[in-house]
Amino acid sequence: MHEAGVSTSTHDAIVVGAGFAGLYALHRLRNLGLATIVLERGDGIGGTWFWNRYPGARCDVESLQYSYSFSDDLQQEWNWSERFASQSEILRYINYVADRFDLRRDIDLNTSVIRAHYDDASGLWDVASAEGHAYRARYLVFATGCLSVPIEPEISGLDRFEGRILRTSNWPKEDINFTGKRVAVIGTGSSGIQCTPVIAEQADHLFVLQRTPNYSVPGRNQPMDPNFERDWKANYPAHRAAALATRSNNLFDAGTVPGRQVSFEEREREFERRWQTGGLGFVYAYPDMTSDPEVNKHATDFVHRKISEKIGNPEIAAKLIPTEYPIGGRRLCVDNGYYETFNRDNVTLVDLRTDPLLGVTRNGFRTERGEHAIDMLVLATGFDAFTGALSRIDVRGRNGLTLNEKWVDGPANYLGICISGFPNMFMITGPGSPSVLSNVVLAIEHHVNWITDCVAHARARLARVIEAKSDAEEEWVNKVAALAQGTLISKTKSWYTGANVAGKTNRYFLYMGGIPAYVRELRQAGPDNDYPGLTLT
Ligand code: N01
């Protein structure tokens, strides 16, 4: 694959992506003694938190949990200023980590990987960037993220719009001033729900174009309480261990008594308590929240009522209430004043189900009921999740097999980490792992630890090639599919199931057995059993 005149830099390992995953992979691989290079398409590090810098962007997992656990010194010395950290604070944290562990010297920014070909003869990977650079290494680690490839929505006339188009997934670095502007936001997932209240405060007028309403609970973000932070830090290992015992590796104050076993009134009190506390803990009130129809219906009705109470106009409330699916089918959103925004005089909800979008014009947008002039258009239209990044790179394994050919019927792999036919190649939080159903920073650590242990084990055995066995892969694919059967998530259209991308529906992208079971799987698949699902040669 080498092109004449292009010099190749050689390394032991190449990591693609410099977000949470790529940075920790670099740290661990380097500590193994491997000369490692990270290739990052952005002009800065941070991945998701580098690109998604839209107004209102913040994490909806609590700061003290959404952070690396691998270094206790790091855990102790970093101070979070809010219960839920803003995008800018998380990006500062990531940059601090990069300096703290001297990572920058092995990161090539502005480097978009477009090709990765395995050479059967040498057992090495040849990697090329769009900028014309070539790299070679034995190990290739994709740290390319689950939500890193935005979807360009199919809306006619977008290219004719003469105002400014902004994308939440690739927000400009400079401050955007909405004062005096007429703005439209398309998309009401987490990104749209977070930016809407902030833009509404500045804009002359804001149109929110909603196709499918989502469930959102109040975030009740607040400044970090120093006593809470001190206590948490004093017991960090215990908190991390307790989180690891939960399905999502997150301490959401998960209830253990099934909702079916308690009275309606008691459930009502518990929902109210969690609603007042704020955050994603609402869906963890009862272990059967999404599996028992009665409990699920109660929670769904409860949120419907809450939305109605918040909105002054019953017609607008009815449009904001999701009716096509119950709570828990899609990713729950966490907001800071989203519903209240629709009580403002300068905000119009455009329900695209009853008033379809016909297209964007030179100066605005047109629905069946009429045309509205706007100066700015914000696209918060989601991502080609899980497989989007890898499917856009020309990845070829043994005998030139492309990854897209291999994955034509779905992303077959082993543990969400390795792929049969693609030796010495690893994914961090790949499809078929718990990834976004868990605290992603910790899910990343699990994968990086497993991968680096595996590489160390292979090197100690003088094995040069690590490859998933095809029968182990098949067993894993079947397990992931079986765990998903009958779940609310698998029955609901969303990016979780690929339903937001044409031709991608109803694939099983997520391991739904919960973190404790997944961690057991990783252990059983590891050194104690001599990596039974891998061939080491
Ligand atoms: O994307 P989404 P997102 N015309 O796919 C609409 C994480 N995240 O970026 O539902 C009109 O959820 C689409 O409508 P529909 C989090 O895991 C976390 O908001 O397909 N509308 C939908 O409303 C989250 O779940 C945080 O009918 C169109 C929206 O665009 C995930 O990222 C913050 C359209 C896309 O919503 C993705 O969230 C932000 C069209 N042609 C994100 N095409 C936090 O931690 C699409 N839509 C807080």
From TrEMBL:
This is NAD(P)/FAD-dependent oxidoreductase. Gene3D superfamilies: FAD/NAD(P)-binding domain. Its cofactor is FAD. It comes from the Bacteria. One of its GO terms (molecular function) is flavin adenine dinucleotide binding. It holds the Pfam family FMO-like. SUPFAM superfamilies: FAD/NAD(P)-binding domain. PANTHER family: L-ORNITHINE N(5)-MONOOXYGENASE-RELATED (PTHR43098). Belongs to the FAD-binding monooxygenase family. Keywords: FAD, Flavoprotein, Monooxygenase, NADP, Oxidoreductase. It comes from Undibacter mobilis.
